[in-house]
Specification:
The protein has helices at 3-14, 65-71, 96-102, 119-129, 134-147, 163-175, 193-210, 244-248, 251-256, 263-273, 285-300; strands spanning 15-29, 35-50, 54-58, 80-85, 88-89, 103-106, 181-185, 213-217, 229-234, 237-242. It has 301 residues and is of the alpha/beta class. It has 2 domains: 3-259, Rossmann fold; 262-301, no CATH class. It has a 6-stranded mixed β-sheet with strand order 6-7-8-3-9-10, sandwiched between helices. The model has no long low-confidence stretch (mean pLDDT 92). The structure holds adenosine-5'-diphosphate and magnesium ion (MG).
Length: 301
């Protein structure tokens, strides 16, 4: 075995997702359904996501986030390049079912994802389709509903739940399949602020408590400040990557990409420009409160 082989093997063990020079083209059709050209939705993306990480992907509409995400559980295959999911190449048909079990996906609209008439029945569909024995299905359903804080609603009809609750049921349905990775494509886009909080809290718990790799695609900057790493996409390419602090320190570049920074970061930035001696790039309310308290303390001393 060569040295290169050994390091490849080590990386395969560590990497949940490894995208190498991935490009994807959609075929454009005219009104009669005839192909008339292509749209490059993903353009030469390299991305490595380690097991256990909480990753956020940002980018304005049409930047290629959803198209890329669908490569991570083999819903789409690269036109060029390759995607490895836990070392398995999505281009190899023999891997598809293993990959889909390993990397689950949650979409924007909870109403399109819930099919059961009763919450627990809905959550059980995934493991049932996988051929999990009945006793174990119930164990998984209960455990998954507890993880997202929806256990008390197990006998409820999904129709009677709020958006945030429905989305948590969708997440439970995915985790009942015991994935190692969960990809959430704007899971909070259709929710009110409290629903958004519920879903993000559940996503963070999956990562913290269950060590599931989480890939969160979102428009809301406040949701990504806790991520280990952020990737920013534009025109199908990854144009920025780094920790939240590294990313949000670049206010001007984000504006160019038509993205915001968290409200509290902007506020702290304004206060600093007014002469308050605050640290660079404050990301959370707690950090701002702490910095202001310190300032006050210093002025009293
Ligand atoms: P995002 O999720 O960042 O909004 P998408 O991945 O949905 O971006 O889209 C990337 C590009 O691909 C856009 O230009 C979009 O119009 C195009 N696109 C997306 N889905 C399709 C499709 N099914 N057929 C043709 N073009 C598509
Ligand atoms: Mg999208």
């Amino acid at each position: 075995m060569t040295k290169e082989n050994l390091s490849d093997i080590k990386n395969n063990i560590r990497h949940m997702i490894h995208a190498k020079d991935v490009s994807f083209q959609y075929i454009k059709h005219d009104e009669d359904g005839n192909p008339v050209g292509t749209v490059t939705a993903v353009d030469g993306v390299d991305m490595t996501i380690n097991k256990g990480e909480f990753i956020a992907i940002l980018g304005h509409n049409g930047s290629g986030k959803s198209t890329l995400a669908k490569h991570f559980n083999a819903l789409l295959y690269p036109s060029k390049g390759s995607v490895l999911v836990d070392g398995m190449d999505t281009n190899d048909d023999d891997n598809i079912w293993d990959i889909r079990q390993k990397a689950g996906m949650v979409f924007q609209n909870p109403d399109n994802q819930i099919i059961g008439q009763i919450v627990e029945e809905d959550v059980g569909f995934g493991p049932e389709n996988m051929g999990v024995p009945t006793d174990e299905i119930w164990e998984r359903v209960n455990e998954s509903l507890k993880t997202v804080g929806m256990y008390e609603y197990r006998k409820a009809s999904p129709n009677h739940l709020s958006g945030g609750q429905k989305q948590r049921v969708s997440i439970a349905g995915v985790i009942a399949m015991h994935p190692e990775c969960i990809i959430m494509d704007e899971p909070t886009a259709m929710l009110d602020p409290s629903g958004r909080k519920e879903v993000i809290r559940a996503a963070r718990a999956l990562n913290d408590v269950e060590q599931i790799t989480v890939i969160l695609i979102t428009h809301y900057m406040e949701e990504v400040v806790y991520a280990d790493k952020i990737f920013v996409m534009d025109k199908g390419q990854v144009v920025m990557s780094g920790t939240p602090r590294e990313i949000f320190a670049q206010v001007d570049k984000l504006k160019e990409l038509r993205l915001d920074v968290p409200q509290v970061t902007l506020l702290a930035d304004n206060l600093r420009k007014k002469g308050l001696d605050l640290p660079e790039c404050i990301l959370t309310r707690e950090e701002l409160v702490e910095a202001l308290t310190k300032l006050k303390q210093n002025s009293l001393d």
